[in-house]
Amino acid sequence: MPAKGYLTQSQKENLQKALSESNNPQLTQKILMLLLMDDGKTYKEITDWLGCSYRSVAYWCVHGDPDNLESLKDGRNQGNYRKATEEYINLLMCLIEKEPSELGYEFGRWTTARLSTYLEEQTGIKLSGEQIRRILNKKKYAYLWAKYSLEDKQNPQNREAFKEKLQGYLEASSIYPDKIQVWFWDESGFSLRVIRRKNWGKKGHPTKVTGKRSRGRVNIMGGLRFHDKKRMCYFIEKGTGESFYEQLKQLNNFLKNECVILGNSESDFPKLGPKILIVLDNASYHKKKTTLAEIEKHLPNIQLYFLPVYSPDFNLVELVWHSAKEYISHRLFKSVDELKHLLERLLNQGELIIQWGRKIKNKGNAAIAN
């Protein structure tokens, strides 16, 4: 170990100048080691003073050359540093916008590991997946859920015509709800099966999750009234023409009672009650001939208005199902009855708060929400 005052005056001045100009905390710490040692401090005292390890102090006080600041750089990791060139980054930006299939790959999405492998083949520069992730983050890219696109299956002309006509119905229902009402109708299923999710735990000691999963499913058919966002949802075994007709009858009876409360008689409902426009998809049992005949004969106020093909974004009740599933996604249910009870409160008793301005996730297009 060098004695106190082992540095020459010029060495000390050079180290002090480098110390004042350094923006590198590692280099600053190593210069201080040499200066403190020259001041007569022991390795132990330097360790306590700088808050670093004894081993680091012992290493750099021996291997650090006060006449060569380059010697204070850690040479034990030389060769591991990899740098992305401008050419590399430009190629990465082009690659991330392409589908892997365009380059002959069978996999469907780029991971950072796959990007690293391809770019190494093209440029000879080998970067880790984590380094590529950092580059993409700086370029404002993030690994997000993709949105399903239905545009290749849709008819733009039919969608535009439907949208224009529907908008007219919605405006009329908002002004004259006693004359016309628009109900968005659909079916959905809610599973009792618990999805395994991430949880907090100490590093190296992951939280244990039981492998036993509850099974069960609750099927719901129902509608959403546009002008006041009233919801009417019914529990069904499964979607059939018969169950569809039965739920429409219940909806018709509910609206008939509303008409009676206003002072009309039940017999006057077909004439004085509102026209009920049901917006729904093209499920086969919605178009069953016997069901359509029963609706026309016994439910004259109800008129079915079918969506264009592959256009769930026009059905506002989709946002109700999405919000309900989002609400229950982290909950555990002991039985189907418990799940039904919660869904009854959420959907029919108004406990579910819905952000009507949101877009429906993975439905191909934005929802009509106002």
From TrEMBL:
Every Winged helix-turn helix domain range: 106-165
Molecular function GO terms recorded: nucleic acid binding
InterPro entries the record matches: Homeodomain-like_sf, RNaseH_sf, Tc1-like_DDE_dom, Transpos_IS630-like, Winged_HTH_dom
Domain (Tc1-like transposase DDE) ranges: 181-340
Pfam families: DDE_3 (PF13358), HTH_23 (PF13384), HTH_33 (PF13592)
NCBIfam families named in the record: transpos_IS630
Protein name per its UniProtKB record: Transposase
